[in-house]
Design a protein that fits this description.
Structural class: mainly alpha
Mean pLDDT: 75
Number of helices: 9
Number of strands: 3
Order of helices and strands: EHEEHHHHHHHH
Largest sheet: 3 strands, antiparallel
Distance between the termini: 52 Å
Oligomer: single chain
Length: 166
């Protein structure tokens, strides 16, 4: 058995590995032996097994606790296009007041892309975080021109701020 940290899993076949797993500390491990593979699988934590099975943990489960006050400050990157609060109106982007629980693409006074109008989901905490991370992956073809936020604390803070607006 040998561990490789930071390798692309597709490289393992070329290195001769028959079994590849993700260890409890998120390290990829290869094994040539089914017995060794079984022993390693038994020792893994349930979260690792979920990842191996192709399931993702909810985005909000991985987020740190959010701070609405810090979220208001972080929201400055959004404010040139979006408004919050009871008097929020559409601008370059739709208003985000009471966005959690709202059907995507449903604010009447905003001209959504057809992709967003037909997205077919309701905004949840998880969807909002995923959209703030990578808008084009959540709704391909949407017209929001934003690269996304990768900082987990900033995402949690903005979500806390938006939730405070409800």
């Amino acid at each position: 058995m040998s561990g490789y940290s930071g390798c692309d899993p597709s490289e393992y076949k070329s290195r001769g590995a028959d079994f590849v797993i993700l260890s409890h500390n998120m390290q990829l491990i290869r094994s040539h032996s089914p017995a060794m593979h079984y022993a390693m699988m038994k020792s893994l934590r349930p979260a690792s097994l979920l990842l191996l099975a192709g399931f993702a943990l909810p985005a909000s489960a991985a987020l740190p606790a959010g701070d609405a006050k810090a979220g208001k400050a972080s929201f400055r990157i959004c404010i040139s296009c979006h408004q919050t609060g009871p008097a929020a109106r559409a601008g370059f982007g739709p208003p985000l007041y009471q966005v959690v629980g709202r059907k995507a693409g449903s604010v009447p006074d905003f001209a959504y892309s057809s992709a967003m109008k037909n997205a077919g989901f309701v905004w949840t905490d998880e969807k909002l975080v995923a959209f703030m991370r990578a808008p084009g992956e959540v709704v391909p073809g949407n017209k929001m021109r934003f690269y996304g936020i990768s900082n987990e604390q900033q995402l949690a803070n903005i979500l806390a701020y938006l939730r405070q607006q409800d």
